[in-house]
Every structure is written in structure tokens, then in C-alpha cells.
Amino acid sequence: METISNTVWQRKGSSVVFDQKSLSPFIADESVISLRQILSWRNKLPITPPGSGKTILISGLETIIETMEVQDAEEFLSHRIRPLIIDIQNRWSNCGIVFGFSAHSNAFRETALEEEVLFHRRDQKQIRLSKGLWDGSATINMKRIVREGDKPESEVIIGYYVARIS
To answer: Is the confidence at residue 144, as pLDDT, over 70?
Structure first.
């Protein structure tokens, strides 16, 4: 899997970000939208993106996939969230869609061939996160997002990104 260290994920495409340091500027800018509000847009997206219009930070997805049965959560991702991502990216091509997670980075695991990202819930069950959100685009186009770590020449994985899904 390729790695990116730039901020393109903030301006286009969709991502899952679990690094609180990287999410905090969006929280401070009040760019956070609840999953409930985003889902209400399914039939009618606003004309312009909320907030600054460059990044939409969506909260609440983690709670949903933590509480649903595994199969229901994976179907929710593929049938409700993925179509919404497609609608938003088609309407606002210069706006990043970021799903914010509070879970520790250890909750996200890449499969052996780095083709898929799994989310390990608190109950030790796993959700096929990248498959649900990005389907086939995940294996080809998914990138690991990193930032500079606290130690010299170290990197910290902050999330995963796909530029565009179809």
C-alpha cells in the first residue's frame, strides 16, 4: 500500500482518520457534522458544503459499526455510506470527506497483503472497513496517511484514504 504524507485527504476524496492530533483543527473550526445529519442529505445534498467547504469531518460512524451486528454494519457501510460518499464526491469534488474515529490506531489492521483495512471492535469482532466504504477501489487506490512522528525521522499512521470511488 502506498503512503501519503501531504494533506490532499483534507481537500478531496474520502478517508478514515483516527489520529486526534490530525482531527483537532477540524473540531476547532466546527467542521464536524454528525452521521445523522449526513444521512439526512441522502435525498438532497445542500448546494454548498458546510463549514469552510474544504473538509467535512463526519462523527458517529464508529459508534454505529461498534453497536450493530457485524453483517449489518458491513451492509450499512456498503449500502448507505458508500453511495453517500459517491454523491458527495460527485457534487463537491474539491471537498474532503473524513470519517473521524476515536479508537486507538491498534483497532485498525491491514490484511497480510495490505489490500484491506479491518476495524477491530471492542468486542473483538472485526469489520471489513475498507471493503464496506470503498469496495473495489480499496485494493487499488487506498493509501495509508501518515504524519511526522514525535521522534526524528519517524512516521505515525493517522488513517486511510481513497481519492475517488465509482
So the answer is: yes
CA distance 29 to 65: 26
- Strand 32-34 relative to strand 155-162, pairing: unpaired
pLDDT of residue 14: 94
SS3 label, residue 138: helix
- Across the beta sheet with 117-120, what order do the strands follow? 108-110, 117-120, 126-128
Q: Where are the alpha helices (DSSP H) in 19-135?
A: 20-28, 35-40, 61-67, 70-76, 82-91, 129-134
Kind plus residue range of the DSSP H or E element containing 137 = helix 136-141
> How far apart are the C-alpha atoms of 55 and 33, rounded to whole Å?
10
pLDDT confidence of residue 47: 83
Q: For residues 52 and 29, what is the distance between their CA atoms, to the nearest angstrom?
A: 8
Total of domains in the chain: 1
**150 CB-side CA count, 13 A:** 1
> E strands within the chain?
2-4, 14-17, 32-34, 55-59, 96-100, 108-110, 117-120, 126-128, 143-148, 155-162
The C-alpha cell of 63 is what?
Answer: 459508534
Range of the domain at 84: 2-162
